[in-house]
Amino acid sequence: MAIKESVRKRTPKALAAYHFLWAWLGARLHRHPSRRLFTIGVTGTKGKTTTVELVNAILEAAGKRTAVLSSLREKIGDDSNKNAIGNSMPGRGYIQKFLRAAREAGCQYAVIEVTSQGVVQHRHRFIDWNLGVITNLSPEHIEAHGSFENYRKAKLDFLLYVAKHGGKVFVNRDDPNAGFFLGELSRVGDCAIEYARTDMQLMDHLSRVERMRESAEFGERPGFRLANLNEGNIAAAIAIAKEMGIPDRTIETALAGFRGIPGRMEFVTAGPYTAIVDYAHTPDSLEAAYRTARRELGDGGRLICVLGAAGGGRDRWKRPEMGKIAAHYCDEAIVTNEDPYDEDPEAIIDAVAEGAMQMPYPKPAILKVADRREALARAIDALQPGDIMIATGKGSEDWIHLAGGKKVPWNERIVVEELLSAKQPA
Questions:
Q1: What is the pTM of this model?
Q2: At what angle do helices 372-382 and 412-422 cross, to 10 degrees?
Q3: For a tag on the chain, would you pick the N or C end, based on fewer CB atoms within 10 A?
Q4: Residue 59 · residue 66 · CB < 8 Å
């Protein structure tokens, strides 16, 4: 028993050394490509992908050749492909290989999502980060990290790594953890730049952007509205662009032409019916999505919600919280399957529904439907003109993950489009 316990205690250190070695080896093998790129890392609980895409759009509007690595896609110059790995910060030298390919393709800039798990596994090391940004911080991946403090420390480790190697760090002043990050970064030196959605400069930019989007040259893309993006993400992108010396007119042109991100507050319409597909999978992001949807409702319109929670032992604490939020904002709520992995799907659904039932009256109608397509069909069947149906948790993901590593192909937007198209006018 003593031998087994000794091995167990050494295992985390052995894994850390393994990941550190891969990070070092990847940089050596690919000849430190980030030294010849302007590299930007975006971390945070929510908004990483949106911020990455906004920064990339501004850089492209400025005539820069860019590379992007995120949970959504892998882009090198003109070549863009959906992220098929399922990991926005892959290991085993993958990021260094990506950066080398970007450099060889003539890219000048690389914008990369930085995850807490990736930082714990040293995947941020041996990269010459010019800028790092944190969008926000809220409880997530607590089971994986052991505590919220460990999760926050992983984010801090990345920011300190950027700062200690001469990079600038952007901190969201609106976030409750801003004081913690700014205090820790101050020990390194004058490396932190604050931004906030309430900055007057941001408001001026957005005012001009909205006027531009109303013009015939830009116009809103059906299914996307700039106003539904988190203003904190826009503020981060603008702050980064201004620090890089990109002119205001270029920033505004990029934002005016921005066409959104698949599965992030994506509107799907058919005749008088409206649905939204969104990736929200944390309590904070779910509440933000519901608030936005509520603002879109007309007088007397109802909000019909389809939601679930992931399995695999991931953040069980948030399941009842998601249900409570749905009970607060939704007129009808259908709790369904999301990604159960090896957990009992019915148990996950029950945990979300029980949270909803804990809320004081009046409660919305709560329905449990395990089959996700059937849940969406029931929600859309209940839609009336003026209502909005919002489905959260899957966004633009390609699979529903089941037990034993099995996965089922899935495209939430296409399913919603099919169901809406088949719906007969009221």
A1: 0.84
A2: 40
A3: N
A4: yes
Those residues with Cβ within 8 angstroms of residue 201's Cβ, 6 or more apart along the chain or in another chain = 238
Distances from the Cα of 14 to the Cαs of 92, 221, 267, 347, 358, in angstroms?
15, 50, 47, 35, 44
Give the pair of three-digit tokens for residue 115: 């995850």
Helix (H, G, I), strand (E, B) or coil at 74: strand
**Whats the size of the chain, residue-wise?**
426
Distance CA(208)–CA(186), nearest Å, equals 34
Which parts of the chain sit beneath pLDDT 70? 1-11, 140-144, 214-228, 362, 426
311 and 230 in a common domain = no
Residue ranges of E strands in 257-344: 266-270, 273-278, 303-307, 332-335
Residue 50: which domain range? 2-257
Same domain, 232 and 94: yes
Q: Give the Cα-Cα-Cα angle 314, 316, 322 (nearest 5 degrees).
A: 110
Of 215, 235, 257, the residue at which a domain comes to its end is 257
Q: How many domains does the chain have?
A: 2
Give the residue among 164, 151, 152 at the shortest CA–CA distance from 125.
164
> Which of 235, 257, 279 marks a domain boundary?
257
Q: Per residue in 134-164, pLDDT tens? A: 999 987 666 667 788 999 999 999 999 999 9
List, in order, residues 6 or more apart from 264 with CB less than 8 Å away.
Answer: 49, 50, 229, 278, 279, 395, 396
Here the CATH number for the domain that contains residue 190 is 3.40.1190.10
Q: Is 34 helix (H, G, I), strand (E, B) or coil?
A: helix
